[in-house]
Amino acid sequence: MTSPQITPASQADVPALNDLVNSAYRGDSSRRGWTTEADLLDGIRTDEAGLAAMLANAQATILKYEQNGQLIGCVYLEKKSDRLYLGMLTVSPDAQAGGIGKQLMAAAEQLARDWHCRAMIMTVISQRHELIAFYERRGYHPTGETEPFPMDDSRFGLPRQHLSFIVMEKVLEAS
Question: Which domain holds residue 14?
Answer without folding.
Answer: 5-171
